[in-house]
Amino acid sequence: MLSARRCLASLAATVLLVAIPALADEPVCAPVSKVPLERHLRQLSLDLLGRPPTYEEYEAARAKGSVSVEDVRALMQKDEFYQRLRGYHRALLWSNVSASVYNNGNSRLSGAGSFTDALSLRGNSSRPLRGANSMGCDSYLAQDVCDARQDPQADPPLPDKTLPVETQRELCRAERYDSRDVPLPVSWDYDLNFFRCARLDEDPVTKVIDPTIDSCAVAQTRGRLNDKYMYFCDMRRLNGKLVPYKCEPDLTKSAAASFTQEVLDEAGTRVVAYASTTSTSKLERCTLNLNLRMVNGVGIKGSYEPRRGCIQREGYVTRPAPYWSAGSPDVRVCAIEAQTREANPWTLEPCTTPRFNGDRSCGCGEGMRRCESPDGAVVHDARVAAINAEPELIAESVVRRDEPYFNLLTTRRSFINGPLSALYRDRQQGLGVFSVTPPADPAVLPAVPFAETNNWKEYVRGEEHSGVLTTASFLYRFPTQRARVNHFYSAFLCKAFVPPDNARLPSAEDACNRENNLARRCGCNYCHATIEPTGAHWGRFAERASLFLDPDHFPRYDPKCRDCALSGNTNCGGECTQYVMQAYDGDGAGSLGMLKTYLYRTADEERNIDGGPELLVRRMLQTGDLERCTVRRVWQEFLGRPMSAEEQRLYLEPLAQGFAQDGHRFKALIERVVMTDAYRRID
User: For residue 1, is pLDDT > 50?
Assistant: First the structure.
């Protein structure tokens, strides 16, 4: 029994579907003592509007001597009432994806775009781009202007200024970009994770700073630096000023402890590398040259990586303000991030996937659309807030228009603001953070400027959509089919999955315990015989994402995925993540290349996949459970407690029947509840 409970609990909910019981069961005794007029009005105002009555409202009620149905209806016409209902549905739907969708920083820019702080990727993304985490570009050197060197003692000379200007520009571009316009470094520094660097303008004994020692050449003439180590002299920025440092492997750090052997140049005069005593690797001098990424011992042209122990920075360029601050003055952007390519020009690998931030040829795209703002609240939090608000707005629109309440579970109507418009209309936004399918053809989605977070436009989603049940909020908040079923049953049917009291498991040797299909596994089948076929209604919506698996692009069976699976290539270039690529039983072996959601499905369950969540709602409307659950939830909301057993006997079925007869009008149900004697009773 205990094992059965653990098995079911691990999957979110479990077996016997039972109505959530009322907490109180004391009978209601008559006669009842009702609250006085003023308290009744206050109670109604707090419950319907979230505030106490005004003085004028008190006076009007006293003049009438009662609170009538018309007064209740008037309260429910106020905007405050609809704000109150948005809070009700926010709690009902758990509309908060903050913990479900987060940005790990790999696509978030840092910097202010200013003279000394260009916009750049500085989290984990900066390691493959520049050689170390949290490193931006050189905000002091323009990528397209060769007028200065950070380390003239070790870098090639600048183009001869006596040459024609056009020739100087050509030479500069050939140095700063490769032959396909991928930006190259303009400066470098030794990485302090490998090296220790000592200031050369500081007297080693007195610690007095000599400001006239402002270059490696001066340090050499003053006897502070042996010419032998000129290539390991590093001009580093300190408070905006370049200061010369001598750098050598830091033997106290594990990454550099074995690099103790000096390697000299061909002339035998200067150190060009430090060799390891335990391997064939070296810490080579830093230069403006990048290494090629090695695959099977071969360097891949156009696939660059920084040298080990070196931070190699490109320069800045000036670009129009990014999409989140469109119309603002131009900003400085690091040359890598300023690129707008759709693919690596050398390898043809795409830049329109989350891999863009590790490829120095990609960049953030047009208008910086693939990246997020330095301030997470401007982009990421705005997107999350918009996703959270969408189901509330759908519910509000249904109630405001006095439509049948359960339209909130089936309507294709929805709302979009600036952040959502940008996310859905531009498929390159949110890469690596949001995995979403536009709810309608991007060409027909309302075009709302990103900054207009409070400007909500109504539109109609595609045929696959069904009310709040297919919003990004619901799909992300409940990331698996089982979680979606569980919350639908809890929120709209007032039922929970719990094991029956007489649940028993067979012996541990029984093969039923090893059944991969949870609808048939011993113990788990108590719940999952219902959960699995019900979850199929979300079968065309990917788990842990807000993706619609369009049959045109995600057929039930893909022979390419099957071929990859049979060859042992379970990744298949990342194209088959939604398909069965490994077999764990006989059914799995026969399902290789099949969309995961079709695994273990019966013919009836496949029809559930085709019908989507709307079919589930239509079926539940035939049972009366939706009406009864809604009555119980409204009662709890406005009376502050569940129905007692006696109240269920007196009110539940009449209110549910009246709700249905009123065309499932939610405001009519609220009106009936707050006009009951139970609502006005003093107890």
Answer: no
CB 473 within 8 A of CB 387: yes
Q: Round to whole Å and give the CA distance between 421 and 424.
A: 5
Nearest by Cα to 406 from 635, 665, 662: 665
- Contact, 436 vs 419, CB < 8 A? no
Indicate the average pLDDT of the chain.
93
Residues 6 or more apart whose CB falls under 8 angstroms from that of 166 comprise none
One-letter-per-residue 3-state SS of 36-51: CHHHHHHHHHHHHHCC
- Report the greatest alpha carbon distance in the chain: 110
Note whether 80 and 91 are within 8 A (CB): no
Give which of 93, 120, 97 is closest to 109, Cα–Cα.
120
Q: What residues contact 489, with CB distance under 8 A and at least 6 apart?
A: 13, 17, 495, 496, 497, 534
Token duo for residue 380? 């990421």
* CA 237 – CA 637 distance, rounded (Å): 62
pLDDT tens, residue by residue, 339-357: 999 999 999 999 999 999 9
> What is the model's pLDDT at position 7?
42
Q: Residues 654-658: what's their mean pLDDT? A: 97
Is there a contact between 344 and 303 (Cβ–Cβ < 8 Å)?
A: yes
Is the pTM for the entire model greater than 0.85? yes
> Judging by beta carbons within 10 Å of its beta carbon (0-12, 13-18, 19+), is residue 266 exposed, middle or buried?
exposed
Q: Which amino acid is at 24?
A: A
Whether residue 14 is predicted with pLDDT greater than 80 in this model: the reply is no
Share of the chain above pLDDT 90, in %: 88
As a whole number of Å, the CA-based R_g of the chain is 34
Question: For 540-558, what is each residue's pLDDT tens digit?
Answer: 999 999 999 999 999 999 9
* Residue 407 C-alpha from the chain's centroid: 28
Rounded CA-CA distance 431/419 in Å is: 14
Question: In the prediction, which pLDDT does 26 show?
Answer: 46
Tokens describing residue 53: 């009555």
Distance, in Å, from the CA atom of 650 to the CA atom of 656, rounded to the nearest integer, reads 11
DSSP string, 213-240: --SHHHHHHTTSS-GGGGGGEEEEEETT
* Contact by Cβ (8 Å): 105, 123: yes
Distance of CA 19 to the CA centre of its chain: 35
User: DSSP string of 276-328?
Assistant: ESSSS-EEEPP-SPPEEEEETTEEEEEEEEPPTTEEEE--EEEEPPPGGGTTS
In the chain, the N- to C-terminal Cα span, in Å, equals: 41
The CA distance from 80 to 77, in Å, is 8
The residue type of 610 is D
Q: Where are the beta strands (DSSP E) in 308-412?
A: 310-313, 316-319, 331-334
Using alpha carbons, select from 199, 191, 188 the residue that is nearest to residue 149: 188
Q: How many residues does the chain have?
A: 683
Helix residue ranges, H only, 401-517: 418-425, 472-477, 481-493
3-class state of residue 628 by DSSP: helix
17 band by pLDDT with thresholds 50, 70 and 90: low
The predicted structure's pLDDT at residue 65 = 94
The answer to whether 5 touches 482, Cβ cutoff 8 Å, is no
**Any bridge partners for residue 275, and if so which?**
261, 282
- Residue 170, amino acid: E
Q: Which residues of 161-176 are buried (b: 16+ CB within 10 A; e: fewer)?
A: eeeeeeebeeebeebb
Q: How many C-beta atoms lie closer than 10 Å to residue 474's C-beta?
A: 27
Class of residue 60 by CB neighbours under 10 A (exposed 0-12, middle 13-18, buried 19+): middle
pLDDT for 504 equals 83
How many Å apart are CA 349 and CA 354, to the nearest integer? 12
Looking at residue 556, the DSSP 8-state letter turns out to be S
